[in-house]
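queue> pop job 88
queue> type: inverse folding (structure -> sequence)
queue> payload:
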C-alpha cells in the first residue's frame, strides 16, 4: 500500500547561542509514532518565510521528549529566512509567569506555570491563571511557551504540560530525501512510540 502525506505548519527558530533549529511538535509533521511504525520511501520538506524557501536536510527528535522535533538551520539559512531566533532559557524555573502562543490558531495569553515534583522535566500550566487573552484560546499540544523577556521556555506536549527545552540533544535523526529509505524509519518511530507510552498518563 502506498500513500502520500503533506503537511504545512508554523515553526519557530530557536538558538542556544551556538546552534539554531526550527522547532515544532511531531503532530505537525507527516510523521507519527505508532506500535508498528511506517517505513518511509521518501521524505522532503522546506522552511519558508515570505518568498524565501530553504530545503530541509534532516530532522531530529528531542532526547528528553521525542514529540519535540528539531530541524537544523545554519547561520546563513537563518539570516536568509530573517525574523527572530529565540534564545532558550538557561533557567526556566525562574519564570513562573509566561506567555503561551498558539502554534496554529494565532491566539496568545499570559498564564502561570507550576512545578510538578513528579515530572521534573515538565511544568504544569495553571489553567485558572489565563489572562490578557487574544483570539479564541484553546491550549493544545504544539503551542509554544515564552518568558515575558522573550526566551523560549518550552513546548506544550498536551493541554496541560509543557516540555522545557534546555538543550538540543537528540535521540534520533532522519536524513531527508531518498536517503530515508535506508534509515529504517518504522523501527525508529516504533521505538519513540514506546518511549512516550512509558511516560505517566498525564504527560501523554
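queue> result:
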Amino acid at each position: 500500500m502506498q500513500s502520500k502525506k503533506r503537511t504545512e505548519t508554523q515553526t519557530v527558530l530557536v538558538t542556544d547561542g551556538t546552534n539554531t533549529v526550527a522547532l515544532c511538535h511531531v503532530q505537525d509533521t507527516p510523521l507519527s509514532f505508532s506500535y508498528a511504525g511506517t517505513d518511509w520511501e521518501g521524505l522532503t520538506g522546506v522552511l519558508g518565510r515570505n518568498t524565501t524557501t530553504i530545503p530541509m536536510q534532516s530532522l531530529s527528535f528531542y532526547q528528553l521528549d521525542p514529540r519535540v522535533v528539531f530541524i537544523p538551520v545554519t547561520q546563513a539559512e537563518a539570516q536568509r529566512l530573517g525574523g527572530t531566533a529565540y534564545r532558550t532559557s538557561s533557567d526556566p524555573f525562574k519564570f513562573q509567569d509566561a506567555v503561551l502562543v498558539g502554534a496554529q490558531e494565532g491566539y496568545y495569553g499570559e498564564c502561570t506555570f507550576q512545578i510538578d515534583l513528579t515530572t521534573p522535566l515538565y511544568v504544569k500550566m495553571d489553567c485558572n491563571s489565563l489572562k490578557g487573552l487574544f483570539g479564541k484560546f484553546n491550549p493544545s499540544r504544539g503551542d509554544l511557551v515564552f518568558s515575558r523577556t522573550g526566551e523560549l521556555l518550552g513546548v506544550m506536549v498536551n493541554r496541560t504540560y509543557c516540555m522545557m527545552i534546555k538543550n538540543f540533544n537528540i535521540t534520533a535523526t532522519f536524513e531527508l530525501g531518498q536517503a530515508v529509505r535506508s534509515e529504517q524509519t518504522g523501527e525508529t518511530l516504533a521505538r519513540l512510540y514506546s518511549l512516550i507510552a512509558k511516560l505517566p498518563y498525564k504527560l501523554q
